[in-house]
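Posting for a labmate who doesn't have an account.
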Amino acid sequence: MTEPWILPDWPAPRGVHAAVTTRHGPGISTGPYARFNLGLRSGDGAESVASNRDALRHALALPSDPRWLRQVHGTTVAQLGPLASAAEPQADAAVAHLSGTVLAILTADCLPVLFCSDDGARIGAAHAGWRGLAAGVLEATIDAMGTPPARLLAWLGPCIGAGSYEVGEEVRAAFVERNPAASACFASTRPNHWHCDLASMARLKLAAAGVTRIHGGGFDTLADQRFYSYRRDGADSGRFASLIWRD
C-alpha cells in the first residue's frame, strides 16, 4: 500500500513536525482529483475539499486547522497564529512563532520550502514557483523569520524535476540577468528553450541569503504519480500540501 504521507528527513529540532501529503491520503475526491486533493481553487467540489482537509487534520493529529493561503506567485509573507479567520490571506509564504500553528503550502509542480530555526522557536513555509523564486519569495521568508540565516534549516519538498521542466528564454533570463551563476541551473534543449532545475535554483538562492543547512530535493512531481502535477494533468490537477507545525 502506498504511504499517504512523506515525512521530511531533516534534523529539525524537537517539537517541530512536518509532512507532505500525496494523492493516496484519506480523501474522497474523484475523477482527476482522486483522491486527496486539498486545493480549494483547483476545480474540485468545495464539499470534497472541505472533507479532505478535515480528514487531514484528524489523520495527522494536527494541533489546529492548517493556515491555508491564497497563493498568487508573489513574495508576500504572512505572519500567522493558530486561530484562523474565514478568509485566507493572499500570500505565498507564512511564518509563525506560536505553538499550535500549522503552516501549509499547496503545490502541483511548484517548489514548497519549509523552514525552522535551530531552536525550534520559529517556523516558515514558502511557495516557490519560478516567478516567486525569481522575485525573491525565499529571501522574503528568511527576512520574516526574524532569525539569523545561519540559524535556519530549510527543506525542499516535491517539485517538478529538471528533466521534466522545459521553459522558455524569458524564464532563464529572469534568473541569469540577476545572477550569472544561475546559468548552472539551466540546460539547453532546443533553440531558446531550457530544462530548469527549480530545486538547484532554490539551493543557490538560499545559500546566497546565508542559509547553509539545506535538505530535501530529489523529487519529480510530473514523473511521480503520487503527486498532482499541473504540467502533466492540466487545469484539472489537484493540489497536495506541505505542512509544518510546532507542538
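Reply:
Got it, the C-alpha cells are right above this. The longest helix spans residues 46-59.
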